[in-house]
Amino acid sequence: MAEDGERHEYRMEELAGKAGITVRTLRFYRERKLIPPPRREGRIAWYDDTHLARLRTISALLERGHTLSGIAELAEAFDQGRDVGDLLGLGDPTEEVPVRLSPEELADHFGDQSTPENLAAALDLGYLATDGGEIVHISRRLLDVSAALVREGVPLADVLAVGRRVREHTDALATLFTDLILTQPGRTPEDLHRLRPLAKSVTEAELSLALDRRLRKSTNK
Fold first, then answer.
1. Pick the CATH number of 1-63 from 1.10.1660.10, 3.30.70.260, 1.10.10.10, 3.40.50.720
2. Which end of the chain is more exposed for a tag (fewer CB within 10 A), N or C?
3. Domain boundaries, the chain
4. Radius of gyration for the chain, computed over Cα atoms and rounded to the nearest angstrom
5. In what residue span(s) does the HTH merR-type domain sit (predicted)?
6. Do 97 and 140 contact (CB within 8 A), yes or no?
7. Structure confidence at residue 80 (pLDDT)
C-alpha cells in the first residue's frame, strides 16, 4: 500500500476488510462487473481507492433498496458516460458551477427516480459526466431545479425530456444573439462575452411574458 498522501493500493483481502464485506462478496461483485478490473502485477491483483469508493457506493445503494441488477445497470451507464473534460470543454467560458456527486448522493437527490434509464438519458443529454470515481452534474442550477420538480411530483423522465427540448430552443436563441452581435462591423467574440448579460435579460423577460400569456389562457378557459 502507498504512503499517506499518495494513491493507495490494496490486496483483495485488505480491500474487502476496508469496504466491510467478505472476500467472497468482493469476488461476486467482480464477476458481475460491478467494479472495474484490478491492476495486475504478475498473479497479484491490486485494487485502489476507486474500487473502495465503488464498493461503498454499492453498499449505500443496497441500503436504499436498489437491487444488484439495477446497480449493475447503473454502473454500466456510469462507466460509459462522457468524461467531464469532453462535457464542459476544458478552458471554455461558463457561468455554471459543476457539482461533483457520488452515485449515492445522486440517489439522495432523486430517490427511486435514479433509474438506469434516467441516468442514461441524463448522460446522453449532457447533464452528467464522469470524472474518475465521481459523477459531475454540469450545472448546480439545473440540478437544483430538476430535484425540485421531482419533489413536486414531476417524473424525472419527463423533466429530462423537456430539458432536451429546452436545450434545442436555447441553442437557437444563442445562435440568434451570436449572429446579431458578430455580424456587426468590427465586433469580436470579446464583445459577445461582454454583452452576454443582455441576451440573458431578453430571454428571461420574453419567457416571463410568455408564461403570463399561458397563465391568462389557462385562467380564461
1. 1.10.1660.10
2. C
3. 1-63, 163-220
4. 22
5. 9-77
6. yes
7. 64
More confident site: 54 or 217: 217
Could you tell me how many residues make up the chain? Answer: 221
CA angle 144, 149, 151 (to 5 degrees): 95
Asked whether 7 and 48 are in contact (CB, 8 A), the reply is yes
pLDDT greater than 60 at residue 65: yes
Degrees to nearest 5, angle at CA 12 with 31 and 52: 80
Give the Cα separation of 198 and 167 in Å (integer): 19
pTM of the model as a whole: 0.67
